[in-house]
Amino acid sequence: MKVVQKKICLMGDFAVGKTSLVRRFVEGRFDEKYLSTIGVAVSRRTLSRDGYTLNLLIWDLVGGNELSHRETGYLAGTAGAIVVCDLTRPNTLETLQRYVHQVRVSNPQAALLLVGNKADLVAERMIDDEQLMAVSQALRTEYFLTSAKTGQAVEEAFNYLADRLETIYDPSTP
Amino acid sequence: MGFISVPELDASSHDIDPMRPDGDEFLLAAVQSILLRRERQRIHELEQEVLALRAAFRDKEISQQQHTDILEAELKLTRRALRNAEERVRELELEVAKLRQRAQLDSEGLMARLLPVFGNLVSRRIRESREEMAEALGPVMGEAIRVQIRESREDMVEALSPVIGETVQRAVAVFFRDLQRNVDAQLRATFGPQGAWRTLRARLRGVSPAELALRDALPYEIRELFVIQHGSGLLLARYEGAEEQTADSDLISGMLTAVRDFVRDSFQPTDDGQGNLDELQYGNLRVLVQNGRSAYVAVVLCGIEPPGFRARAQQLVDDLHVRYESALRAYAGDPESLPDLQPLLASFVTSVARGQETAVVRKLSSGQKAFLAGGALMSILFLGVACFYLQFTIALYPIAFPSSTPTYAATATNSATPTPTFTPTVTYTPTPTFTPSSTSTPTSTATPTATPTATPTFTPSNTPTPSHTPTQTPTPTATGTPTSTPTPPGAQTAGNVWVRDAPDVNARLIAAIEFDTPLTLISVSGSWAEVEWVSTLPWLPGVQRGWVPFSWIALRADVLPITATATSSATPQR
Questions:
Q1: Which end of chain A has the smaller Cβ count within 10 Å, N or C?
Q2: Within 13 Å, how many C-alpha atoms sit on residue B67's CB side?
Q3: Residue A174 is assigned to a structural domain of this protein
């Protein structure tokens, strides 16, 4: 069966749960310990698609308010991106626009997805659905409420992005 | 509804007697019975159902009662068992307390009793599920070894040294076996063009050819080879070495690209690409990176790569770009859009493994270029001077050396056996002349003993080579008239010999000359030589001249080798 490789990036402010999302999606586990990512961490998950196998290479980029030249270099050749905010920290939603801009500068056709993580912390939630919907409409993408801790909607989010990759990405584009 | 049909009324009328005194009441009752017949029937049915339900209820009640009885019995049993268990727990607690007390009092004895049990349990567990035990004990073992090394390093060294020594010995043996194999291969190529090229390279680099051959022979192995797209880090192609690798090549290519980008951006890259990551090293593995425009090649190898390896890797990158650059650049993860790169990679690995010199031209340093240029210039100058000198020599040769004057190159050896071998190529013809034989074997039966015999050879130049094989016959076959007077050659007697006044055994005896008397060779006639010597005899003082058999004359090394000897059967005359 044909194996197709796609590179996607996870972006967002520090400690929003990017690495935890990747760990949940790739390894199916969650770790309470927080270790800040240095530079980038690359993971892989193979998904069985209709008629082919999708080799999803997930680049978990360093968290920060704004990516430096070095980090934007990591976006080269990316087919899609997941921008992540922390539902308990409203400021993490405000910065997503910049991340999306950087992704689109690198690849205008990149598939995008907005994820509000830490949905399990219901009592501490500071970002409501209306705010998320407004931002997602502004970014022209969908949004998912996920929890890396409980696994809520993690698979669905990545699978949604995989579907988007399949539909919008044009391989002939350099 | 509410309508009464006539047949019904008729059907019911046969039960009514209108002549009875209570006929109205009866009729009313009959009408009621007719009108309420259905309800009564329904009431009857309901009563029947009630009865049936009561019966069913009774049955169910009975079964419930039975079930309740059973449950109560079970409950009693469970309570009893619980009481027993509680009693058992209390007993066990008492036993544990006693054991604990005993353990505190007699810990060593308890250990001695428990150890075999635990030992057997562990052994059994290891036998039954070795992998689980390994997983469980692995981290503990690592930590235990670290603690042991920290706390009693010497004990660990003593314990491990035999194992480590054997391991190192085996590794070294493998290394030297590979080295020996490679050295053998290098030696086989020593006398070929590659050997000459290696020698030249060694000289240019200031090392000995042996050192360079050893350097070339150092074993190495290509473990893996990756072709990776720039930027995205997507793996374009991969070549596996002999050992199957288990690492995730996709992750390797991604992280390698990330590290490469990190290094490039962190250390102020220059525009000419000099800031790229060239090499990573981990243990005995190294990752050599060779960059291209759209893709780069990463070679994972073990050992020390031979000289020229990088140039060949760069050639591979160039070939990939020349043939497939557009495909490499446009690759977006779909393998069908990518050409088959495996043949190119396999060709590279094969050529590198064979150590063949490809068409890659090594870039020489400026010093090497200057050395080569100087060497070439000096060679041209030397060649020019040599040509000039040769021409000059040829032009002046007839003047400096007349044609009749041969040049001599004589080698005299003393031999106890007078078996001289002469290979003349010219006829030396002082007066009188003779023709020596080319190769002569003395057939003389009168072999003088204990007398040194010269074995002269000479190679005169600028003189014709005789076209025939001269014989030993003392017949002059060639004559020459030198334009200059040759210096009579010196000689000495090879023994005590008679001197006669003519070249004939019957000629008159002049005197006897003692062994080793210096002579001056005047002329040669057949097997006779005319000589001069200084006589010390009282009746014959001063310089004298006479004929002696030639075989009794030993020519000195610095004189003309007279080659006529050999087949003469001259008998020494005393």
A1: N
A2: 6
A3: no
CATH number of B408-479+487-574: 2.30.30.40
Q: Report the amino acid identity of residue B451.
A: T
My answer on whether omega of the bond before B219 falls inside 30° of 0, hence cis, is no
Q: Domain total for chain A? A: 1
Give the number of A-B residue pairs with CB atoms closer than 8 Å: 76
For position B67, what pLDDT does the model report? 92
Contact B572, B551 (CB under 8 A): yes
B329–A70 C-beta distance less than 8 A:
no
Q: To the nearest whole angstrom, how far is the Cα of B314 from the nearest Cα of chain A?
A: 24
The complex's ipTM works out to 0.84
Residue B163 identity: V
Q: Where are the beta strands (DSSP E) in B293-424?
A: 295-303
- Contact B410/B557 with Cβ under 8 angstroms? yes
Residue B318 is classified by DSSP as: H
Helix (H, G, I), strand (E, B) or coil at B311: helix
* H or E segment and range at residue B186: helix B153-188
How confident is chain B (574 residues) per 10-residue block, as mean pLDDT? 43 51 76 84 93 93 92 93 93 89 76 80 81 80 82 81 79 76 68 72 74 70 89 88 70 88 71 70 86 90 81 90 89 86 88 56 65 88 89 77 50 42 42 42 41 43 43 43 50 84 85 84 84 82 86 67 41 40
pLDDT tens digit sequence for A97-147: 889 998 998 888 899 999 999 999 999 999 999 999 999 999 889 999 999
**Please, what is the end-to-end C-alpha distance for chain B in angstroms?**
189
For residues A76 and B232, the answer to whether their CB atoms sit within 8 Å is: yes
Determine the distance in angstroms separating the CA of A124 from the nearest CA of chain B, rounded to an integer.
36
The answer to whether residues B572 and B448 touch, using CB atoms and an 8 Å cutoff, is yes
> Which tokens hold the place of A44?
């892989």
CATH value at residue A23: 3.40.50.300
User: For residue A57, is it within any domain?
Assistant: yes
| DSSP strand pairing (A80-86 vs A3-12) | parallel
CA distance B280 to chain A (A): 18
Q: Within a domain: residue A38?
A: yes
Residue spans of beta strands (DSSP E) within B409-527: 490-493, 497-500, 509-513, 518-525
For CA atoms A123, A127, A130, A132, the dihedral sign is negative
Best residue in A27, A74, A106 to probe B by mutation, most B CBs within 10 Å? A74
Alpha-carbon gap, residue B181 to B432, rounded angstroms: 70
> Is residue A158 included in any domain, yes or no?
yes
Domain of residue A52: give its range: 3-168
**Which of B232, B248, B265 lies at the smallest CB-CB distance from A77?**
B232
Burial of B127 (0-12, 13-18, 19+ CB in 10 A): exposed
Residue A160, pLDDT above cutoff 90: yes
- Tell me which architecture the domain covering B219-356 has in CATH: 2-Layer Sandwich (3.30)
A-chain residues near B265 (CB < 8 A): 69-70, 73
Contact residues, chain A to chain B, C-beta under 8 Å: 2-7, 39-40, 42-44, 55, 57, 59, 69-70, 73-74, 76-79, 169-174
The letter for the amino acid at B4 is I
